[in-house]
């Protein structure tokens, strides 16, 4: 006799939804049947990948009767009402952390679950990590002795604090940062030791957000649970990854590395003299070797689908839905009562926080935009928008959300939430607009999605600009679309992009195709188009971990594209936005493209040497053999296409990899003559903006 699978739907189709979907696929007897998101395009994309049905409205999902339970993966301020709605409709719910905004809301969800005879679970995924299960087992069997203290750390860079996007939920209020990351710490405390008493909370390392006051990047919490003294540390600056649990007992010390899924137990032994410390270190080395080898083999055989993060979600999904399917008691790690305890402790933490809450500026007039910036909440878009305001323009920013990093400029900037696929809506939004800047880009993993989400969108924006009669459309392409593999070549503004891009990386290929189609609109229909191709943009608001320079391994190590000794096409953010505005203002340049690249001042190694000299941060830098990187990429391509059956991937090419090192030189005399553009050419002035004033480390 077979039983029907447990049918699960996802509410919210953002980044985290893909992890939940993959985890559900690994749980026997569970089937992903629906994905719901107001952005139907997102819902359809995720649903199609898993054979599920897409919905744009929760009522429609509920009415379809396709689900027995749901994962609520929306921004946290929607968790409480959505959970209540789903429970009252007879659905079990798993709610991503934080499950609500406070303990009272969480208790309401738990009460609603009990009233509906349904289950409410919290999405505390690290409680499902295999090494965490081993840690609990070792504590229960007394391997650590009597536990006296524990230190739990979440020290991991949170880039949006320094480089945006600044409109996301965690940055809207100081308390949101603790609600976003605190559950990782508190859920471990609750499960191991019970409800803690919060004794002290200290905040540090403030960072200024554009137009929205400051936020703390460091949190230090002292607490106690019975006889166990607790230190909880949250650090969001550019720091070495230390997401860990250290437990001290009378017999041994245990350290659980959440990011690596390893558990190391350091215990004394009974040997004498020299043998004692030797055996102790051999034990630690043996544990590291065994667990490291096991994890490496697991990654290799699963094609990296069993990373520690992926395993934590698998443990979460299995631990929650298997008991439901078997009508067994809920695992207390993720129960509603545990969720209430976690939020109770977070309430106690936040009650001790005294951090100024910025008061948004009140508008005195309605903006009258003459410029539109599409992609205005990104690094370049933010700087461009503020520069346009500084030059006396009101600006309409098109964004996916209604929140933007411009709360201090309500009289000059309006943020409009609009789908970039809505060509008619874009044309209406362009009414009365003189200049449109399109800085939008998609991040896709196959060419078909690039054509839909990037190329078609850029072409639609061009058609909307034609329909609205704007004076100038400035489109930002990228210098990455050039073949930069030849050190003897010089690229000018008149250098054409390669005709064949089939073997270039998706970003370079997609941007080049956007340019091609927009230029076709210019020639055929008179689209007043100017193309700007920024180089490697550095400066305040930009990330430390810039992938135009190399492949990053955390904040402290980078493998360069190539040997790192050739001058790179760096440009300061101020020079970049100055060039963009000049692309809009200069007369008679329609149909032309300009490479916004500074003069050859620094190599990659020069740049990292300057970071060390000026900031005291020695980043581990190694050269990358691009031929070997190409070979490894080719092997991965074969595995993905032949073993995993993935389609739409770009075939790797050696020239594409060599281009990443930016080996060709740029001649910007065309932009200097046509635009009057003069980027910084002095190395010390450049480094002042690129390093000293860039806030790269967050403190």
Automatic annotation (TrEMBL):
Keywords per UniProt: Oxidoreductase
InterPro entries per the UniProt record, alphabetical: Epimerase_deHydtase (IPR001509), Gfo/Idh/MocA-like_OxRdtase_N (IPR000683), Gfo/Idh/MocA_oxidrdct_glycsds (IPR050463), NAD(P)-bd_dom_sf (IPR036291)
Domain NAD-dependent epimerase/dehydratase: 372-596
SUPFAM superfamilies: Glyceraldehyde-3-phosphate dehydrogenase-like, C-terminal domain, NAD(P)-binding Rossmann-fold domains
Gene3D superfamilies linked to this entry: Dihydrodipicolinate Reductase, domain 2, NAD(P)-binding Rossmann-like Domain
A Pfam cross-reference name: Epimerase
Lineage: superkingdom: Bacteria
Residues in Gfo/Idh/MocA-like oxidoreductase N-terminal domain copies: 6-124
Protein name: NAD-dependent epimerase/dehydratase family protein
